[in-house]
């Protein structure tokens, strides 16, 4: 079955904007000349329309008809001159006014062709056209950053999904090559480990996609209960210091996404303390700025540059151990869930090592 795309509406071809502006200027000049001619005719009405009177010295006093007869050719020539002058001046002025728009249009055409690196960088005073060009530059910069992050994300996702698949194939081929010496239990355990890794990556990608779609339905959720459930689910032998208010602290949001946010924060704190153990601080705080969910932990020292990039997809910090099952998407999911709830995510390196994460939700009032 063939489908036909919706036909684009046929637009009537019109003169260029520069020509229309020039015609507009000429029209304004013509109207102004006609108004002046009308004022002249009104003034001439007060001149008597009598026969010529011979004055002393041989002169004469013109009548109204004489003045009108003498003025009409001059008025016509003046109007024609105003139209020509209006067209010429309008064409020049419109060209100067529209030149910045040509630069903006050029940047838009290059962006449509796939080149997002071009910028307008319009010089001149801070007027409407300059602000328009600056806004276009900012839009192109954000688009370029978004597309670059999307390409990087796609490449990283492909790598993360291809690596365990290739490893599974290698394990199977090695087992096939040595039927007598292969250990079936070891092969199955290795395949199960690699399959779990792929499944974890796919699950994290689905969570990230769901968080990027935003929150469909909001309902009051107890953030204390969300944090406690995340701590129970994480388990482990870490020392966890919990500081929460005695009563419920409610925020508006999607409970499943909030569970994933808190779960990823607690799991991230646990992973960065393997295998030696460490301390995790978990708290829910209320204040004038909103409701804060805080999860801090010990771990390897982190520099500010590394901390700034931890919320990007597939970025792993120091202190990870092999086989922890991480996909590099934990904090990326946290950042997406926070954005979907209108919350602020703040990452900071602890002085003694480790990470301090704060998610500030708007107060429900």
List the helices and strands and how they pair.
Elements: H1 17-44, E1 53-54, E2 60-61, H2 64-112, H3 128-177, H4 184-213, E3 219-222, H5 223-234, E4 239-243, E5 250-253, H6 255-271, E6 279-287, E7 290-297, H7 304-308, H8 330-340, E8 344-349, E9 355-361
Parallel strand pairs: 4-6
Antiparallel strand pairs: 1-2, 3-5, 6-7, 7-9, 8-9
Question: pLDDT under 50 segments (min length 5)?
Answer: 1-6, 319-324
Helical residues, percent: 55-70%
Instruction: Write out the CATH superfamily name of the largest domain.
Output: Histidine kinase-like ATPase, C-terminal domain
Biggest sheet record: 5 strands, mixed
Sheet with most strands: strand arrangement: 4-6-7-9-8
Q: For the residues shown, what is the average pLDDT? A: 79
Helix-strand sequence: HEEHHHEHEEHEEHHEE
Shape: elongated
Query: What is the CATH T-level topology of the largest domain?
Result: Heat Shock Protein 90
Structural account:
One of its GO terms (molecular function) is phosphorelay sensor kinase activity. Its main location: membrane. It comes from Pseudokineococcus lusitanus. The chain has about 375 residues and is α+β, with helices and mostly antiparallel strands. The protein has 3 domains: about 15-115, no CATH class; about 155-215; about 220-360, Heat Shock Protein 90, CATH 3.30.565.10. The radius of gyration is 38 Å and the shape is elongated. It has a 5-stranded mixed β-sheet with strand order 4-6-7-9-8. It has helices at about 15-45, 65-110, 130-175, 185-215, 225-235, 255-270, 305-310, 330-340, and strands spanning about 55, 60, 220, 240-245, 250-255, 280-285, 290-295, 345-350, 355-360. A hairpin with a 5-residue loop joins strand 1 (about 55) and strand 2 (about 60).
């Amino acid at each position: 079955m063939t489908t036909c795309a919706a036909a684009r509406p046929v637009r009537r071809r019109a003169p260029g904007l520069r020509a229309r502006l020039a015609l507009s200027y000429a029209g304004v000049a013509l109207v102004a000349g006609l108004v002046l001619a009308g004022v002249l005719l009104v003034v001439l009405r007060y001149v008597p329309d009598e026969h010529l009177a011979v004055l002393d010295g041989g002169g004469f006093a013109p009548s109204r008809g004489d003045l009108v007869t003498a003025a009409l050719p001059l008025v016509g020539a003046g109007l024609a001159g105003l139209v020509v002058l209006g067209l010429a001046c309008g064409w020049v002025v419109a060209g100067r006014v529209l030149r910045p728009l040509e630069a903006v249009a050029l940047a838009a055409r290059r962006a449509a062709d796939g080149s997002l690196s071009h910028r307008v960088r319009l010089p001149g005073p801070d007027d409407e056209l300059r602000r328009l060009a600056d806004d276009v530059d900012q839009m192109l910069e954000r688009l370029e950053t978004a597309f670059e992050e999307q390409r990087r994300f796609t490449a990283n996702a492909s790598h993360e999904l291809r690596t365990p698949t290739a490893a599974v194939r290698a394990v199977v081929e090695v087992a096939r090559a040595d039927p007598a010496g292969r250990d079936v239990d070891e092969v199955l355990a290795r395949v199960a480990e690699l399959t779990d890794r792929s499944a974890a990556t796919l699950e994290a990608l689905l969570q990230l996609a769901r968080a990027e779609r935003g929150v469909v339905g909001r309902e009051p959720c107890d953030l204390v209960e969300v944090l406690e459930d995340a701590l129970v689910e994480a388990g482990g032998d870490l020392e966890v210091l919990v500081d929460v208010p005695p009563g419920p602290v409610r925020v508006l949001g999607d409970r499943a996404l909030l569970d994933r946010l808190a779960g990823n924060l607690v799991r991230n704190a646990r992973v960065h303390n393997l295998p030696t153990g460490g301390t995790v601080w978990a708290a829910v705080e209320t204040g004038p700025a909103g409701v804060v969910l805080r999860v801090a932990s010990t771990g390897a020292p982190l520099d500010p540059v590394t901390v700034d990039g931890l919320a990007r997809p597939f970025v792993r910090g120091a202190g990870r151990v092999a086989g922890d099952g991480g996909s590099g998407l934990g904090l990326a999911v946290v950042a997406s869930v926070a954005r979907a709830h209108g919350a602020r995510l703040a990452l900071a390196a602890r002085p003694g090592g480790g990470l301090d994460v704060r998610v500030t939700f708007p107060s429900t009032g």
